[in-house]
Structure of FAD-binding PCMH-type domain-containing protein:
Amino acid sequence: MIKFGLNVSFILLLYVFQTIFVITICHAEHEFVTANNNELQACLSSSLPLSVRTVYPCDTSTNQNSSQYQCGYFDIKSLSAQNGGRIPHSPAVVVHVTDSNDIQKVVKCAIKLNYTVNPSSGAHSYEGYNLGSEHNNIIINLAGINYINIDASDGTARIGAGARHGPIYYRTYQSDGYTINGGTSVWVGITGLALGGGAGLLSRLHGLLSDNVLELKAVNAEGELLTINATHEVELYWALRGAGGGLFVIVTELKLQLVKAPSLVTMFQARWYTNATKLVIRRYQSILFNETAWNSNNNIYIIMDVRSTYVMILMTSFGNKLGDFNKIVSLFLTTLPPPYEMSIVTPD
C-alpha cells in the first residue's frame, strides 16, 4: 500500500483535474468543429430580413447558399473589446441585429433548435459575459441598435441598446446642455453599464446611472417584447437596474433621465513612480475616510489608478466654487513625496 503526504496528494489531484479539464475543452472544441448548424442557418435566413448580417465560423457551416451568409475566422477574444472571454469557445453565429423585431426572431430560432443566446452591446466585459461560455452559442450583436432620441421638454432620452457613451455625450450636450451620469470611456456601451449599476464622475451628484433608468424595452426568453418600468413588470424593473447584465432579458432600449452638464470642470492630475505607491494609497484612503474633507462637497470626485509603472490620482471638480477642491488637493499632497508629473487644468 502506497501512502502519500498531504502535499503530494494535492498535487496529484490538481494534475488529474487539469488533465480532465484540458481533455474536456479539446473534446468540446472537436464537437464544435464537426457540429452541423445548417438548421440554424436555415431558420435565421428564412426569418430575418436580408439587411441583417449573420457571421458563421468558416470551418463549421456547410450551407453557404444564402445571400446573408458570411463567414469569419475568429476566436472568442477577437469579439471582445477587452480581450474577455476567459473560457475559450466558438459561437455558432454572430447576428448583427438592427431592431427589436430581429432579436425576437433570433430568440425564437434559438428556442426551436435549443441554442443558448448571449447579447453583446459594447463588448467591454472583462470576463466576457456578453460572449457566453458555451460552445456553439448564438451571439446577438446589438451595435446596430444605436439611435439616440432626446425629448428636451422633459429632459429624457430613448437610447438604443447598442449606443456607446461618446455619441450619447455629444448628442445630449447639443440638446440644451444635457448629459448622462455615465462612465468615462467613450467606447463603452450604455446598456452594460446601466444594467450593472454604472458609476462615473457625476455619481456623487446624481447617483448611479441605473438610478436614472426610467424604462426599458426588452425581449424575454419566449421571444416576447416587454415594456418594463415602475408600474409594468415591476420586479424586472427592480432587478435590471444593477443586476441585469444579460441575465433575465435582452434589453433593446433604455429611457434615461438626463441631467444638466456642469458649467465648469476643473481637473487635478498627479503621477508618482511605483516606489511611492503605498504612500499614495494610504493618503487616498485617509482622504476618503475624512468626513470633513470628503463629505463637504458632492461636486468633487477622486479616482486612483494603480499601474505597473506608476500610480495616478485624478481629482475632478464640477462648478465655479473651487475652495473645497483646492483644500483637498493641498491636503492630499501633504506628507507625500513630490509627483513626477502634476497639472491642474480646466478643459474646454
